[in-house]
């Protein structure tokens, strides 16, 4: 099974941006075959990576519900889902991307979430790295979107709300018995001398990513974060982060 790195945090802390930059670093440095997983129903990872996902799991499930005849005779529902995902998996330069999406209208994400988890488990042996951008907040942990990970990055900003949320995520991971090799705190859009890392003693502080105007401009223009120049402050921080994880 490939090395699994899961990223989570309060909404608005920049976890999707960080996930994208880590995928970009791995691809640029040709570290191996990479699968980027957007496990957030409010899917943004593909656009952050400059990729257009052909289809997402939510769409496949909706199609089957509306027209069961789409499933070929002799093929189970699960086999059909696996076939569609393998056929429509978005491929980019240096990585593939799998998108959870969400079913139309109100309803529980549990089934789509379970499909995503099962698919990742099945195909993970085909990749050297699996980078999972989780849904914001805590609910995805209770659904166990990620049952285990070699590395968990909890992202926070320098706000007290963000840090409390990071601590709750850490506590819930322990409470649910999710198997994690290493757990890290990353402070995003913070100054290097900020001492928030000292407020969560249980989590190992990994690094700080300062606010990067170039990155903000790319986001405002709807461009991929992979267009960020090598000398930018965010890129330098991501390089330090990745080298610490995979040193």
Care to describe what's here?
The protein has 247 residues and is α/β, with parallel strands linked by helices. It has one domain: Rossmann fold (3-Layer(aba) Sandwich). The protein has helices spanning 15-28, 45-48, 57-66, 77-88, 110-123, 139-142, 160-176, 213-220, 233-245, and strands spanning 3-9, 34-39, 90-92, 95-99, 129-134, 148-156, 179-188, 204-209. A hairpin with a 2-residue loop joins strand 3 (90-92) and strand 4 (95-99). The radius of gyration is 18 Å and the shape is globular. The model has no long low-confidence stretch (mean pLDDT 85).
The CATH topology is what?
Rossmann fold
Give a quick account of the main beta sheet: strands, pairing sense, barrel closure: 8 strands, mixed
| Tally of contiguous helical segments | 9
Any idea what the radius of gyration is? Answer: 18 Å
CATH architecture: 3-Layer(aba) Sandwich
Shape: globular
Superfamily (CATH H level) name? P-loop containing nucleotide triphosphate hydrolases
CATH class: Alpha Beta
Give average pLDDT, whole number: 85
Side by side, the strands of the main sheet go: 3-4-2-5-1-6-7-8
The proportion of strand residues reads: 15-25%
Instruction: Estimate percent helicity.
Output: 25-40%
